[in-house]
Amino acid sequence: MTRMQQQLALVLELDRLKSVLRRTRVKSAQGRAENSAEHSWHVAMMALLMEEHANQPVDIGRVLKMLLMHDMVEIDAGDTFVYDSVASAQQEEKELAAAERLFAILPQEQGEELFALWREFEAAQSADAQFAKALDRLIPMLLNYHNQGQSWLEHGVTRQQALTVNRRIDDGSHALWDYAQQMIEHATQQGWLKA
């Protein structure tokens, strides 16, 4: 295959991400589950809008690349509910295998470059990755909150779980973590999160 054919092969494979359904419902059409492709686009747009709230200066181009491809592994591994600690522990191995398969579709140097960026996002050690991870955690909270706690209620999520799982938002943005904590407290008062 030519370089372009390899790249187009991954583009076509990525279409499958539109069929991976998440637990979060879209706000604009209550009752319909969000898919992973929509989530990736939405969180990338959030990065463009919220860059000024990062704890440290970030390279927004790198952040956008991370966010646009971070969940492509769900094509093979599926989506895991972030509050399901047992499934989350098993997900890492499935996602790594998926990443190895998907990035291998590309021309070697391009696949290796993007695979390294994906691993950087997963490790969440750099300022770019920490900010990207913060946004990735915040956006489902926003949707849940504005859908009156829909998936929190459906899965019996507690206030403490919401605080523990989402605390890494603070690594990327203190301002957004302050906002997230306010949502958690209000959601608890409303009964959307168990006290």
From TrEMBL:
InterPro entries found in the cross-reference section: HD_domain, YfbR/HDDC2
One MF term in the entry's GO annotations: 5'-deoxynucleotidase activity
A single GO cellular-component term on record: cytoplasm
Superkingdom classification of source: Bacteria
HD domain sequence ranges: 14-177
Residue ranges of the TM segments: none
Alphabetical UniProt keywords: Hydrolase, Metal-binding
Name of the molecule in the record: HD domain-containing protein
